[in-house]
Predict the 3D structure of the following.
Amino acid sequence: MAKKFPLNPSHPERICWGCDRYCPADSLACGNGADRTMHPSETLGDDWYEWGDWGEAINSQAQARAPAQPISVVDLTNA
């Protein structure tokens, strides 16, 4: 089973996110000349998981984490 993918890690720049190994950025196990794969939050922002289809594992984590949205009532009678 794959590791749980963190939605917003505290220091994503320290880790390569290319596979389930999550190697340190300065010690990649992929081989000579490999570059670090950035976390989606580094390129897309902290709400990266709210857009697109990231798969069931990410979507279920995001739903569990999302706060309940309050329903607001707007009075349009005087508009």
Notes: The chain has two helices and no strands. Residues 16 and 22 are 5 Å apart (CA to CA). The two ends are 55 Å apart (CA to CA). The mean pLDDT is 79.
